[in-house]
Design a protein that fits this description.
One of its GO terms (molecular function) is RNA endonuclease activity. The chain has six helices and five strands, in the order βαβαβαββααα. By secondary structure, the chain is of the alpha/beta class. A hairpin with a 2-residue loop joins strand 4 (94-95) and strand 5 (98-107).
């Protein structure tokens, strides 16, 4: 189950945009071999809201583009597809039958700014940020160079398979 909650009014959205985001999430989960029903919340905010959340949760008093709040803890260096078969998901990880992966908070305002800066579409930027965040929910990280390289390769691979390129 994918929940989308638009809590901003700076960027107008339509149902087609939400459908694209849902499709990107489903594709990312499929590419990462997630073969069970999951719950993910996606919250669209503006720069003021994400700055507040970033300060509150990460003690960073600045705007950012996307924040990920994974509900599952993975062993260091492991991601969902590497551990899910043997992972002991107890009842606290579920909402009814859905495995709760976590929340994505995306500043649409920041995504718009970055799409203009990087000279590609707003939709492409949002899709990239959503894939990035979904990979975080699945245990990927980019704190070390090797992790960053692996995560970037997965992001680009997923987006390429969806034909979401920088020229979109």
């Amino acid at each position: 189950m994918i929940y989308i909650d638009n809590r901003q009014d700076k960027i107008s959205l339509d149902k087609d945009f939400e459908k694209i985001i849902e499709d990107v999430i489903i594709s990312a989960l499929n590419e990462e071999n997630v073969d069970r029903s999951c719950e993910i919340s996606v919250i669209f905010v503006d720069n003021i809201a994400i700055k507040e959340i970033n300060k509150e949760t990460r003690n960073m008093d600045k705007e950012t583009d996307v924040l990920s709040f994974p509900m599952l803890d993975y062993p260091k260096g492991k991601v969902y597809k590497d551990v899910y078969i043997n992972y002991n998901f107890d009842a606290s990880f579920f909402d009814e039958a859905d495995l709760v992966l976590g929340d994505v908070v995306l500043s649409l305002e920041k995504a718009k700014e970055q799409s203009e800066e990087f000279n590609h579409s707003f939709t492409r930027e949002c899709c990239y940020l959503v894939v990035h965040s979904i990979l975080h929910l699945l245990g990927y990280d980019h704190m070390e160079e090797e992790e960053k390289s692996i995560m970037r390769e997965r992001e680009e691979s997923i987006l390429e398979k969806l034909n979401i390129t920088r020229e979109v």
